[in-house]
Design goal:
alpha+beta; Alpha-Beta Plaits; four-stranded antiparallel beta sheet; 25% strand; HMA_dom; HMA_dom_sf
Length: 65
């Protein structure tokens, strides 16, 4: 399980954008976003760095939890 804190994910719209960016990397990943705590959890076999790059490119830089 990969976990990130995303400081600028503050609402449901942000969470949708984050989910889309992550799904574009791995369409089979299980993704759980929580805007209230600004966290996301990803279950995937893809490297953490690949997801971080995709999130940054989408405007949502992430920090590992």
């Amino acid at each position: 399980m990969i976990s990130f804190t995303i400081p600028n994910m503050t609402c449901g719209g942000c969470a949708k954008s984050v989910t889309k960016a992550l799904s574009d990397v791995d369409g089979q990943a299980l993704i759980e976003t929580k805007p209230a705590t600004r966290t996301v959890k990803i279950k995937s076999n893809i490297a953490e760095s690949t997801f971080r790059t995709a999130l940054s490119a989408a405007g949502y830089p992430a920090d590992p939890v």
